[in-house]
Specification:
The protein is an alpha/beta fold and 186 residues long. The protein is built from 4 helices and 10 strands. The strands form 2 sheets. It has a 7-stranded mixed sheet, with helices on both faces. Strands 6-7-8 form a 3-stranded antiparallel sheet. The two termini are 25 Å apart. The relative contact order is 0.17.
Amino acid sequence: MWWAKEAREAYISIGEEYEATRRRPLPVADFATFGNKALDVGCGRGAQPRYLEHEHGFVVHCDLDRRMTPGGDSVECEATMMPFRDGAFDVVYLVAVIHHMPRDAAALALREARRVGRVAVATVWAPDVWRGREIAPGVWEVPWGGKARRIYFQYQLEDLLAMAPTRVLSAGVMRRGRHYNFYIVF
């Protein structure tokens, strides 16, 4: 799971500086009312956790390292091996998580999300032009100044649809500021 180690080390290195750039959440809870209990996988400490807490009565946040969680109800965990019982949550959010994983791990994370949640929502980054250096076909190394290198796996909407473990309820493209994301709800 080299990709998980790379992601953890990168985001710990850039910490608060990264979080300051994530002041606006991706409004994924606006798709529908999914229920009271939500799991926020790969939560970070930007605006997304506060937004989800506003939308749901009970939210558990999880990330690869406790230092990357907002505190409160949070767990250190990895998306492909979640420590929750089947059906523990009404909805599981994987916002900007899947694009840090190779395809086999991404498919496993989507299955895990559906295992622990009645519904799952996943998003991946969808830039018009990838910045950084392509280190393998569809795998991008994106530097954060001189502090860290982030690894992104390039996915198209069709890739997400193919990896979804159950029937997809909704899929498409959403915008936050100048950036686009593909999403699926399943």
